[in-house]
Amino acid sequence: MAELRYRAPKGTYDLVFPESERTERVLALAGEVLTLRGYRRISTPVLENTELFRRSIGEDTDIVTKEMYTFEDRGGESLTMRPEGTAPVIRAYLERGLYAEGLPQKLFYFGPMFRRERPQAGRFRQFYQIGAEAVGSADPLIDAEIISISAVLFQRLGLERYRLVLNSVGCRNCRPGYREVLTGYLEGIAPSLCEQCRKRAKTNPMRVFDCKEEGCREALSGAPAIAEHICPECREHFEGVMGGLEMLEVPFDVDRSLVRGLDYYTKTAFEFQFEGLGAQNAVSAGGRYDYLAEELGGPPTPGVGFSMGVERLMMSLDSEGLGMFEELEQMIVFVAGVEGVDRGRVFSLLKEIRDASFSADADFMGRSLKAQMKQADRLGAMLVMIVGGEELERGGVALRDLGRSEQWDIPIGDAVSEIERFLEGTR
RNA sequence: GUGGACGUAGCUCAGUCGGUUAGAGCGCCGGGUUGUGGCCCCGGAGGUCGGGGGUUCGAAUCCCCUCGUUCACCCCA
Q: Of A266, A285, A46, which Cα lies nearest the Cα of A168?
């Protein structure tokens, strides 16, 4: 392959048809599922003040310490290309005073996120997320609703090879106590832990549950689970969420080792894990974040949300052989001009047809009639309107049905009505 | 940031114990039908064999470096 001078930056990609159109459809379906549940679209800037993410995601997280695209703009301000969507939404919620619109505020978003990681299957530097936030309610049933949205979308798409895992990560009342107990336990089994985990035991003890090392897993099998150490309030909430999911008929497994990577999560944490996607198998994930609004300088405001990786969603469709939507856009008419005919005739017919809201195209390559027919076929056109000298002399044009290889003359003035008639006839 | 695999036409790939002008299928363009698609037939365009260096009489084929892609670790959507 001759080396092109410019290529899409590492970890980014161009979405080209027909995949682009396929993605569009999936997004439209997601929007439908969300709208049906009262969620409304919000768009926030791709750029935010760096502090917003440092505060919300956590100073010690991988995202903040090594993955953000941060730069100083020409005015000396530190800006960051958003690595996730929740903090910006909460920021906007506070800034625009959306609480005055009544609670809960149910918002959804779609857009690109940026993280400077090493790309691999299902992991990109610029990736798209669709997500939703329910802000202002502490009701466990709204956790269930948020979680169920992904399940409903998966079901609508026909996806089956996944499972929902659920956990509670506690709150500011119970987490410190659990942390202490866990740290104590980890000290005891330190010799049988891998190097990584020994480090993590000190910096972020709950992360050890993520380790896939055989030795660690065994050593951790007897570790205290947070589920047994959460406070009565958290426990009650967790049970409420599980009850809600049962009512919504969303099956789940409790996984006490599930932890989330962003600091702001409290209580509910969940993840939809898929088979057949490679190492990055979480297509949708999220949780509750009851202190985030406060952390950002607003009034205490509970919230819960999810975000879904669009690329991973599309990959899961691929792996289950789904999402090959039958007909993509079909061209209704191709207006072909015979050699020697004034192109103006073709062009004005084209305008007339398009003005009547029929998709139509014509030749812009100066090609022969034969080549134009070929082009019409390639575009999937149903009809070809042939503008030829002979027909014009009789005051008409020819209309050809590509499906049935039939062709007939029509008066040039009836172009649009003839197309309408044809379309009614095929139905 | 670490490790492995791979890098030949637009796409999918063949060709490598080193040896004349680097191939196929698909796609693209044109012709076979002096005004007509899909099938078929014919022809054509398109390749610094990722890049650089080295070994050799000779390298797409061997060696080194580099860039890129990809998968995995890490982490996460």
A: A266
Chain B bases near protein CB atoms (7 A cut-off): 1-3, 7-11, 28-33, 35-38, 47-48, 50-51, 68-77
Edge-to-edge strands of the sheet including A78-81? A47-49, A78-81, A69-72
Fold type of domain A333-421: Rossmann fold (3.40.50)
CATH superfamily of A19-174+230-319: Bira Bifunctional Protein; Domain 2 (3.30.930.10)
B59 C1' to A1 CA distance, Å: 19
CA of A369 to C1' of B48 (A): 38
Ordered by start, the domain boundaries in chain A are 19-174+230-319, 333-421
**How far does the CA of A295 sit from the C1' of B72, in Å?**
37
Nucleotide B41 C1' to residue A332 CA (A): 31
The gap between A345 CA and B67 C1' (Å) is: 53
Q: Residue A385: left (phi > 0), alpha (psi -120 to 50), or beta?
A: beta
Nucleotide minimizing C1' to CA distance for residue A260:
B76
Nearest nucleotide to the CA of A128, by C1', is: B77
Per-residue confidence of chain A (427 residues) as pLDDT tens digits? 445 678 889 999 999 888 898 899 999 999 999 999 999 999 999 999 999 999 999 888 889 999 999 999 999 999 999 999 999 999 999 999 999 999 999 999 999 999 999 999 999 999 999 999 999 999 999 999 999 999 999 999 999 999 999 999 999 888 888 888 888 888 888 777 777 777 777 767 777 776 666 677 777 777 888 878 899 999 999 999 999 999 999 999 999 888 877 888 999 999 999 998 988 999 999 999 999 999 999 999 999 999 999 999 999 998 888 877 655 567 999 999 999 899 999 999 999 999 999 999 999 999 999 999 999 999 999 999 999 999 999 999 999 999 999 999 999 999 999 999 999 985 4
Distances (CA, A) of A372 to A149, A378, A405, A417: 47, 10, 15, 23
| Nucleotide in closest CA–C1' contact with A122 | B77
Residue A387 is encoded by which pair of tokens? 């503008």
Q: Which nucleotide is nearest to A284 (CA to C1')?
A: B77
- Crossing angle of helices A140-157 and A19-35, in 10° steps, is 140
